[in-house]
Design a protein that fits this description.
The protein is an alpha/beta fold. The longest helix is centred in the middle third of the chain and has 17 residues. The radius of gyration is 27 Å and the shape is elongated. It folds into two domains: about 130 residues, 3-Layer(aba) Sandwich (Ribosomal Protein L4, Chain: A), CATH 3.40.1370.10; about 50 residues, no CATH class. Helix 2 packs across helix 3 and helix 4 crosses helix 5. It is built from seven helices and six strands. Strand 4, helix 5 and strand 5 form a beta-alpha-beta unit.
């Protein structure tokens, strides 16, 4: 694969790095990408919504009027769905919306979206990214140097200050390289990733 530029925190190009073609130039499988997004959103749902059916609503044991001779339509209970205070037709009940994807499917979906960002030139590699203390201003300066507004920042495992520095930026999210997912990669316009995080991803997904 063609080399990509490596930048420092000042936004200056200092090196080149060759990305693994099997991960960052993989065929884009739209079906698996869609499935992965639906999976993540479904797994986030609490599934606690509840409404009462006609069997659960209190009252309505007696027939409101006799079957014939009143001029009214026949009714069996004042808790039927058409009555005020009646039960709900096909009422929602607590349920689990989550489902599973095979490991290889998840990996193929991740590779697809990473490859998409690379093909769109929305993939910036940083030589390193670290702060002595959490500072939102410093994080904003790094992104401004790269001319990036809405970004997913992917770092190694020892970047707690980076994650804390990105918390107050509305259009920025920081994740560790072992926690990347399809939804976040698609949600944010640009990926800003450290060199060590690239190496970790290549080890995991190669």
């Amino acid at each position: 694969m063609e080399n990509v530029s490596v930048y420092n925190m000042e936004g200056k190009e200092i090196d080149k790095i060759e990305l693994n073609e099997s991960i960052f130039a993989a065929p884009i499988n739209e079906h698996l990408v869609h499935k992965a997004v639906v999976l993540q959103l479904a797994n986030k749902r609490q599934g606690t919504q509840k409404a009462k059916t006609r069997a659960e609503v209190r009252g309505g044991g007696r027939k409101p009027w006799r079957q014939k001779g009143t001029g009214h339509a026949r009714q069996g209970s004042i808790r039927s769905p058409q009555w005020k205070g009646g039960g709900v037709v096909f009422a929602p009940t607590p349920r689990d919306y989550s489902f599973k994807m095979n490991r290889k499917e998840k990996q193929a979906a991740i590779k697809s979206v990473l490859s998409l960002k690379c093909s769109e030139n929305k993939f910036y590699v940083l030589d390193s990214l670290s702060f002595e203390e959490p500072k939102t201003k410093k994080m904003k300066e790094v992104l401004d140097n790269l001319d990036v507004q809405k970004a997913l920042v992917i770092t190694g495992q020892d970047a707690a200050n980076v994650a804390a520095s990105a918390k107050n930026l509305a259009k920025v999210r920081s994740v560790y390289s072992n926690a990347i997912n399809v939804y976040d990669i698609l949600k944010y316009d640009t990926i800003v990733i450290t060199k060590d995080a690239v190496g970790h991803i290549e080890e995991v997904y190669a």
